Amino acid sequence: MLFEFDSDQQLWQKTVREVTAKECPSTLVRTVVDNGADPAPLWKTYVGLGWTELVESEAAVELAIVLEELGRATDPTPFLATTTQFAPLVAGRTRPDRAGAAVYEGISAVRDADGWLLRGTAHRVLDGDRADDIAVVTDAGVFTVRADQVSARRTSAFDPVLHLADIVFDDVRAEADPDTDVDVEKARHVALAGLAVTMVGACRRILDLALDHVRNRQQFGVPIGSFQAVKHRAADMHVAVERAGALAYFAALTIAEDDPRRRLAASMAKAAAGECQSTVFRSGLQLFGAMGFTWENDLQFALKRARAGEHMLGSAAEHRALIAEEYRATLV
After folding, report:
1. Residues near 60 by Cβ (< 8 Å), separated by ≥ 6?
2. Residue 1's pLDDT is what?
3. H or E, element range at 218
4. Using CA atoms, how far apart are residues 226 and 223, in angstroms rounded to an integer?
5. What is the per-residue pLDDT for 3?
6. DSSP state of 312
7. CB burial of residue 171 (10 Å; 0-12, 13-18, 19+)
8. DSSP letter string over 253-295?
9. Per-residue exposure over 176-193, b if at least 16 CB sit within 10 Å of its own CB, e if not
10. What contacts 244, CB < 8 A, 6 or more positions away?
11. Hey, how many other C-beta atoms are within 10 angstroms of the C-beta on 264?
C-alpha cells in the first residue's frame, strides 16, 4: 500500500465489510448492551475465518483493515485487545482461539527460591475480565499468566460494549521465566496503531449515519443536507476522518515495513484519531439534533466507541506532546 489500497487489499476490505455487516449488525450490538447477550459465537466466527492469526508484523495493514471495519461495527468481542495488545507481547506462544489481554504497568516481579511472583494491581485493562491469557510487562521481562490465576473485576466504561477491568495480582506464581527478548516498545506501537484505526472506523460510521440522515431529513420542503451550515459540518467531518485514516494506515505500514519512523507514526495516528473523534462526535451529534440523544438511535454505539478510544493509551494532547518532544530532539 502506498497511498491507496491495491486490488488485493480492496478485495480484502470488501470481504471483511460483508462479513461484519452479516455477523455483527447493530441489532447484535444492541442485544449485547440491552440484554447481556454473549458475543462468543461472533468471536468463534473471527477465529474460524483466521482473522485472529493476523498478528505478524507483515500483516499489519491487513489487520488494520479488519480493525477499521470492526470499529465501524462496534465489535463486542475481545479482538482488539487480543490482536494488538496481547499478541505482540507473546510472539505466537498461544493458540489463535484464546482471547488475550495486556498489562503494561502496575505489576512488579519478585524472585524467590521457587521462581517468580507477580504483585500489584493493573487498572482498566481492556478485556482483562474475559481474557483466557494475560501478558504482563514488568521490569524483569514479559510474563504470560492464565486468567484463572488472577482476580479481575469489570469496571464501568463510557462505551457499554467495551470490557475494562481492574486486575489484582496477589503473589501470582509465574509458570515460566520472563521473556526478555520481547520488543515492548514495538508492541506499544502496534497497540496505538490498532486503537487509532478502530477509532477511525467508528468515526467513519458516524459520518455515514450523519450523511444518510441529512440526505433524508427535510425542513422547509428540502433535505437539510442542502443547507450551507450542514454542508460545512459534513465537510469538516469528512476531512477529519480522511486525515486520521491516512495516518492510521501509515502507522500500520511502518510496522509492516519495520520503518524507524514507527514510533512517531503511532503517536501521530493516535493524536489524529483523537482530534477526529472530537470533531466527528460534536458535529455528528449536532446534525442529528435531538434524535442523536435517544437510546433508540444506533448513532450512540459509534459515538461511544470513538470517544472511549480517546481515553485509552494516551489522549490526543499527550501524543501531540510526545510528537513535539520527538521533533525538538531532532533539532539538538
Report:
1. 190, 193, 252, 253, 255, 256
2. 47
3. strand 218-219
4. 6
5. 64
6. S
7. exposed
8. HHHHTT-TTHHHHHHHHHHHHHHHHHHHHHHHHHHHGGGGGST
9. eebbeebebebbbbbbbb
10. 196, 199, 200, 203, 269, 272, 273, 275, 276
11. 19
Cell readout for 4 is 491507496
Q: What is the CA radius of gyration of the chain?
A: 20
Selection from 125, 266, 124, 109 nearest residue 186 by Cα: 266
What distance in Å separates the CA atoms of residue 63 and residue 67, rounded to the nearest whole number? 6
pLDDT averages per 10-residue partition of the chain, 332 residues: 80 97 96 95 97 96 98 98 97 89 96 93 97 96 96 94 96 92 96 98 97 91 92 96 97 95 96 97 92 89 96 95 87 70
DSSP, collapsed to helix, strand or coil, labels residue 52 as helix
Alpha helices in the chain (DSSP H): 7-23, 26-35, 40-49, 60-73, 79-81, 87-90, 184-216, 228-256, 262-288, 299-310, 316-331
Cβ atoms of residues 88 and 100 within 8 Å: no
β-partners of residue 153 are 166
- Residue 258 near residue 57, CB atoms below 8 Å: yes
